[in-house]
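tokens incoming
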């Protein structure tokens, strides 16, 4: 592979450009060395300039590569690079490139990672301006690439489904996937053709979401062609910024997306506008510039301090998000370029930070997917710093006594984290995606939310709107019947406090436990009268984390949960990363079938230290609390896995170790598995999806994803029998436990505890308390005897009615 040297006047510029380029090639990147700046001042600040000896040293350090391409920014960088050729000691072939610095670097890195020669990489870099020219209309459609289509080539067609089409990141993925193989891509709409190994040529295609592309390859490159087709079908991993079940269409590339389920109705209130764009104004006189830099740094420190204080007062996701935003306010990548603009050009501090933030936000946006959603966080920090510098009041969430629907362009994480669900009944934002912080926090607060609702701010304040956080619908002026239906739903969903432990009419105890995700949820569950926690989805605390949480942080988070249930049971589920809830620090990259992949307990195969650290943190937190702490592992399929998790728990002194029954394999071998653990909890959500082979995220398959399916009921019955035989407690913690009718069927099958959202507890308690244990057994028998899901439901319902009458 060739090596690359980036020569620039500014170390920061070069490093940022290299970082950007390397993001495009997660694996097997070429070596890229930076030769930038001309040393440092006495106070440690970098001297802008270039130095031929540094360039020569970088070239010599790449002497063992297959050639070195040197990219330069401007002026003396070129002179230094030329002079460096005289100074190098090594014999490696070196080529100076006239390519534009940033675009050229990006194109060169991607092409080089595919093993292209020095000549090929140099050519790629030098044509790197073509896409930008095409985009802003400075040239006609890009010239077709030289990729040929011969009669013997294999050809596949696929439609681009990711929102931004073949932009820079997908182009890099395609080029990396094909390496130097002979693969070509043609856009059916325009006929434009490109060599798929060339990211620049791919960008030049201007292929958009909804475009059909034709991928062709020589027969020997079948594997590369298949890889490209798979990438296209997968939307380059960027489809999750759009509704999951539907590919966006060309006519409607951006649709509102429901990101936090539930329906609510209320009057629209706009989030007060943020700060205005600062004027460019006249350049500051030289002697005033140092003071302006100090003013900028003070304002940023003040903003960071404020966010840190809010983080300290917050819990769960909100805390992590506020801490991350505070870090951004101290980030040199934002502040240093702003300071440089003040010093070099006399820009005012507000304007300088505005411009610097725009650059950072643009870089993040260009990377697409989840990273792009962080651009909103940068703009939030920018607004806060500008407000602090100019003495403006930041709008923030309006303070109203009456409930309302909050509509905003985007919500700053710091604002979302402090929303009061009692007054904000729903959220609608014009920007954002399902993984934006707004969405994450809205879900944790239980506030229905819709993002990507373009034009939502055009709905006048005061208009009554219906917000459906499941379908993404935002409907102004709903009719009276809809208003009444939503009000009834809200009343039914309001948790009613349980005042006695769960039991059948004849006193057979069935623990009614809560499913929670953080301390706030635990406190609410305790308030609603839950007897304990049957499922603490610990991964909910760390959904947005790039790095594994440390021991101290985990101990603190777990302690807060345990403290809500003194003397009572709390079952912590170990991190269940994967599929619908990836943890960036743990989830396997790009799996074809993530629900069948390295998720749940399986992540410990790759990262056993993460599981061990979590267990140690749970044990440490439990030691200081009176809660009866139990631990269970998700997605267990074999006896070996069950034994392994029990052994790990025992090793850190955790007395009660269980597993979830979520796979048909675990249910079918229940006798073995239950004999090896202290308890089990049936995760009916996953058990149903795996038994019925129907992805639980796909609404179209809801009839299959039904826990009343006879196959699922049979497996639950088998597990209960194994529980009796081995003396192992069996609980249910999937959504099915919240269905009162099914809950009593489970009790009839032998389930001893039911764990659910606290909102469902009172309805389940009521039906449970209306039946004797024998009647529950009767309901279970008729349900098990049915041949279809609807027959099972109907039979149990008739048996319940008969029992109520009798
Ligand atoms: C389940 O699968 O039923 C379960 C409770 O786990 P989760 O929904 O978190 O996958
Ligand atoms: Mg599960």
């Amino acid at each position: 592979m060739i090596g690359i040297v980036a020569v620039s006047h500014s170390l920061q510029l070069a490093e940022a450009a290299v970082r950007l380029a390397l993001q495009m090639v997660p694996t097997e990147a070429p070596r890229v060395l930076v030769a930038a700046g001309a040393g440092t001042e006495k106070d440690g600040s970098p001297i802008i300039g270039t130095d031929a000896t540094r360039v020569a040293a970088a070239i010599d350090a790449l002497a063992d590569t297959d050639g070195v391409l040197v990219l330069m920014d401007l002026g003396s960088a070129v002179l230094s690079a030329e002079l460096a050729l005289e100074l190098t000691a090594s014999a490696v072939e070196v080529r100076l490139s006239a390519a534009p610095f940033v675009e050229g670097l990006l194109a060169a890195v991607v092409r080089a990672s595919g093993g292209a020669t020095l000549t090929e990489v140099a050519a790629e870099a030098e044509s790197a301006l073509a896409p930008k020219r095409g985009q802003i209309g400075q040239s006609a459609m890009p010239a077709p690439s030289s990729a040929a289509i011969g009669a013997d080539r294999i050809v596949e067609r696929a439609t681009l489904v990711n929102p931004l089409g073949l932009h820079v990141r997908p182009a890099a993925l395609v080029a990396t996937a094909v390496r130097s193989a002979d693969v070509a891509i043609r856009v059916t709409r325009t006929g434009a053709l490109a060599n798929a190994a060339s990211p620049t040529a791919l960008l030049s295609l201007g292929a958009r979401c909804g475009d059909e592309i034709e991928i062709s390859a020589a027969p020997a490159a079948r594997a590369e062609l298949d890889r490209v087709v798979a990438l296209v079908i997968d939307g380059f991993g960027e489809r999750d910024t759009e509704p999951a079940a539907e590919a966006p269409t060309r006519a409607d590339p951006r649709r509102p997306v429901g990101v936090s389920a539930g329906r609510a109705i209320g009057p629209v209130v706009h989030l007060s506008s943020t700060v205005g764009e600062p004027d460019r104004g006249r350049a500051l006189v030289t002697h005033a510039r140092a003071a302006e830099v100090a003013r900028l740094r003070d304002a940023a420190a003040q903003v960071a301090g404020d966010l840190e204080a809010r983080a300290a007062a917050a819990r769960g996701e909100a805390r992590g998000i506020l801490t991350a935003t505070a870090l951004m306010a101290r980030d040199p990548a934002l502040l240093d370029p702003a300071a440089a603009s003040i010093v070099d050009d006399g820009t005012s501090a507000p304007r300088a930070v505005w411009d610097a933030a725009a650059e950072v936000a643009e870089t993040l946006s260009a990377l697409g997917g989840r990273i792009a959603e962080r651009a909103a966080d940068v703009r939030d920090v920018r607004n806060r710093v500008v407000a602090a510098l100019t003495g403006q009041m930041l709008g923030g969430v309006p303070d109203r006594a009456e409930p309302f629907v909050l509509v905003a362009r985007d919500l700053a994480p710091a604002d979302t984290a402090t929303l009061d669900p009692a007054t904000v009944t729903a959220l609608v934002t014009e920007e954002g995606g399902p993984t934006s912080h707004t969405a994450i926090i809205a879900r944790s607060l239980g506030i229905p939310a819709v993002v990507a609702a373009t034009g939502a701010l055009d709905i006048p304040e005061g208009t009554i709107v219906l917000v459906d956080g499941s379908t993404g619908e935002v409907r102004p002026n709903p009719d009276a019947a809809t208003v009444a239906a939503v009000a009834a739903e809200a009343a039914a969903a309001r948790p009613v406090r349980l005042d006695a432990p769960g039991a059948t009419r004849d006193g057979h105890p069935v623990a009614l436990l809560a499913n929670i995700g953080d301390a706030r949820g635990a406190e609410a569950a305790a308030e609603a009268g839950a007897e304990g926690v049957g499922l603490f989805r610990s991964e909910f605390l760390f959904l947005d984390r790039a790095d594994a949480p440390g021991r101290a942080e985990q101990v603190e988070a777990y302690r807060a949960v345990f403290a809500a249930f003194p003397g009572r049971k709390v079952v912590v589920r170990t991190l269940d990363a994967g599929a619908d809830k990836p943890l960036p620090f743990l989830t396997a990259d790009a799996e074809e079938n993530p629900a069948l992949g390295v998720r749940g307990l399986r992540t410990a195969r790759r990262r056993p230290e993460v599981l061990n650290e979590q267990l140690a943190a749970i044990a440490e937190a439990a030691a200081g609390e009176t809660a009866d702490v139990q631990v269970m592992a998700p997605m267990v399929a074999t006896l070996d896995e069950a034994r392994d998790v029990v052994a790990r728990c025992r090793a850190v002194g955790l007395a009660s170790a269980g597993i979830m029954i979520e796979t048909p394999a675990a249910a079918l071998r229940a006798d073995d598995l239950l004999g090896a653990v202290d308890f089990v909890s049936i995760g009916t959500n996953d058990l149903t999806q795996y038994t019925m082979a129907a992805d639980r995220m796909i609404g179209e398959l809801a009839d299959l994803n039904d826990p009343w399916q006879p196959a699922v009921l049979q497996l639950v019955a088998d597990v209960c029998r194994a529980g009796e035989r081995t003396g192992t407690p069996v609980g249910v913690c999937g959504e099915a436990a919240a269905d009162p009718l099914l809950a009593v069927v489970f009790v009839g099958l032998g389930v001893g505890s039911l764990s659910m959202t606290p909102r469902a507890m009172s309805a389940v308690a009521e039906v449970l308390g209306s039946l004797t244990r024998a009647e529950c057994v009767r309901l279970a028998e008729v349900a098990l005897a049915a041949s279809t899901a609807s027959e099972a439901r109907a039979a149990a319902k008739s048996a319940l009615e008969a029992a109520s009458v009798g």
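note: The mean pLDDT is 85.
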